[in-house]
Amino acid sequence: MTRTKLNLSLLMLFTVSVVFAQKKAAETITENDLQAHLDYVASDFMQGRDFYTDVPGLELTASYLKSQCQKMGLKPGFNGYFQPIEMTSSKPDPENTYFQLISKDGKVTSTDANIFALGGSSGNDTIAGDLVFTGYGWYNNDTKYNDTEGLELKGKIVVVMTRNPTMVESGGHNNMQIEMQKMQKAMLGGAKALLFVPDPMNPEPEYINSIKKYATGGTLQLKGAKPGRTMPVKLLFGTEELANQIVQESGKTLAEIQNEISETGTPKSFDVKELTANVVLGKDTSTVIGKNVVAMIEGSDPVLRNECVVYTAHYDHLGIDGEQEVYNGADDNGTGTVALLEIAEAFQSLKKKPKRSIVFAWVTGEEKGLLGSDYYSQYPVFPMENTLADINMDMVGRSAEKEPDAEAEVEKSLAGPDGIYIVSGKQSSELMEISADICEEMGLIPSDKLSQAFLTRSDYYHFYKNGVPVLGLSTGLHDDYHKVSDEVDKIDFHKMKRVAQYSFLVGEKIANQKKRILVDNPSVE
Fold this sequence. Notes:
single chain; about 525 residues; alpha/beta; Aminopeptidase; Glucose Oxidase, domain 1; 2 domains; 16-stranded mixed β-sheet
């Protein structure tokens, strides 16, 4: 046998052995193990894995993750596997929260205590200013219907009804995405605050109360966070009765104004001239210590081990609502949490570890504003410039019966049995090619449909903004998102296993290449 043929044979043998090792490691990720972990993490006993529950389910989950890392023999990323995070907790103080209407002569005409807010600073807030009623606060590109045409929003408290004319006409239900578009419009217009009131024809009169359950759980901010990290426009939520007092100078009730909009198809917005507002939002503040759980496998190459691939998943959720119902968050993000455990086990099963180091970070406070990943990005195990990629898993366990239509709404685009959404800033075409190749090998159908709308909405964002290429993995949104109905019995464990195996194979490929993946579009927003 010639030397060339011998070298070729050895190369083929090496390639086959590597592929065999990868496949064997991927097969350690099993449906039974995923379910066993998830049955514990998403159980009622964990009380929704939040900071404010009687049973400290979030702490118990962190301890469980630590114990699993120890059992696998993973190296701690930080002392004791925990990365402590000091945060400021802020909860509404209803006794010191109210919305006052003030007449032109400076007299308080009414005080309404039945309001609440989202966003704002961690301390007490006071908002004072003129009012403008903007109907639904909506603009339709096709019909050119525009509720804010000719109105100045800057420095004012903008009053809007929920839903929009099309939804009212069709009997459509509330959609938070629609309301967030109104917030963005108000923010761009320079508004001080946005006051949402339920439109009188609303088929879901309890909609605002359902938001209130979430809002009264409180907010968290990293200790010493810059003002720019808070929501720039304060979102206030009030009642139809409060709205009737605000619009009374029109001589009509809110219901009568809404009827006129429906009948004429034209806006009925106006500046409120007879009244101004003074809003006080009381807060109870305290210090909370959260923790990221971080483990790692050190790379086998003496030089390349100083670079890493990071896997992330948030393990927190929404806790318990005002009626003591538990948000178990099986898919959000119990699935990502336990998938990451199985991926770590797959890497640890490799006899020859990857050339580069692998970091596994279970981050906290995602539901409070991506806090844990924000903190990690500031104080990482390896510098951001030595982090080749972040592979983030957030809601990776659900499937629709078939793949969604191309025209399906982003908010309801649950993937089918073979679908996977990959959110990316597309900073590395090489990374996307690796991802596409592995999807093809596994029979997965990748889609980037969620990238534009979701690039800032999960933990990969803090890697993206630091120039690190990201793959944000999800199987899509569903009707149980942020509801108490997000339960284990709805999880597709076969699909979840495939997503976890795909994630392992992508990270293993990146970590073993001789050269780091090429970043051909490093610029971020």
